[in-house]
Amino acid sequence: MPLHRFGEFLPLSEAEIERVQALGEPPVALARHAVLRREGEPPRYIYLLLSGWVGASVLLPGGERQIVKFHLPGDMLGTPSMCLAQAADTLTALTPVTVSRVSLQAFGALFASSPRFAAAMFLSVQRERVALMDRLAAIGRTPAIARVAALLLDVQERLRPLGMAGDEGFDMPLTQEQIGDHLGLTAVHVNRVFRQMADTGLVARDRQRIVLLDPARLRSMSARQQRTTTPDAGWILGEGGADAP
To answer: Where are the beta strands (DSSP E) in 52-152?
Structure first.
């Protein structure tokens, strides 16, 4: 089970790691296009994504789909809807996936028994909130090529801890339509942007394989905020830190 998202702010003990690993139901393999949960359904579970890619989407009044998040291995799916009576989004497998379903009762029991786990999840949620804030600002004020550049940089950064991205590139098994549904662009526009990026030496693309040839220039044009997570989150449990008396 990918556990990097659980310990990115506070290292968990071996006992806590064992509890996280035992948190979900037995893993289930699902085919591409399978729906884990639909928008409007009662949110009784969250999901641990063990392998594959999942899209979280909402249906707009005109019938269009807006993909609000591409989930990668190690992500917890469906957590925003825990505060709602009906799920806010639909979770759809974009590739073959393996997931483990977790009841809200089991998740709540782990929160109650492990303050460190609860604190780590609280900080992870704040990081996700900042990422969504940055994406909202970027989509509202940047051209198409900047949006695609920001997406590529984000995917590479999130795949690195999994050992699935490096200087040699990464696989991004998304269609141009899915990318467009995420960035507010048409599939034709996405294709045009990728051709422009290839022609100007920014990226190399071979089917699903993407190589970022000029990351510095991509970062410059993306207007993507370079956020640094806190190196000392012990304060959240009253453990003090570098400035503690």
So the answer is: 54-59, 65-71, 76-77, 90-93, 97-103
